[in-house]
Amino acid sequence: MRDKIVILTGAGISAESGLGTFRDVDGLWTKYDLNEVATPGGFARNPALVHDFYNARRANCRGAAPNPAHAALARLQRHWDGDVVIVTQNVDDLHERGGANDVIHMHGELGQGLCAACGHRWPAPDEMFPDDACPRCGVPATRPDIVWFGEIPYFMDEILLHLGGAGVFAAIGTSGEVYPAAGFVELAARAGAHTVELNLEPSSVVSAFAETRFGKASETVPAWVG
Ligand code: BV8
Question: Which secondary-structure segment (H or E) carries 34?
Answer without folding.
Answer: helix 34-37
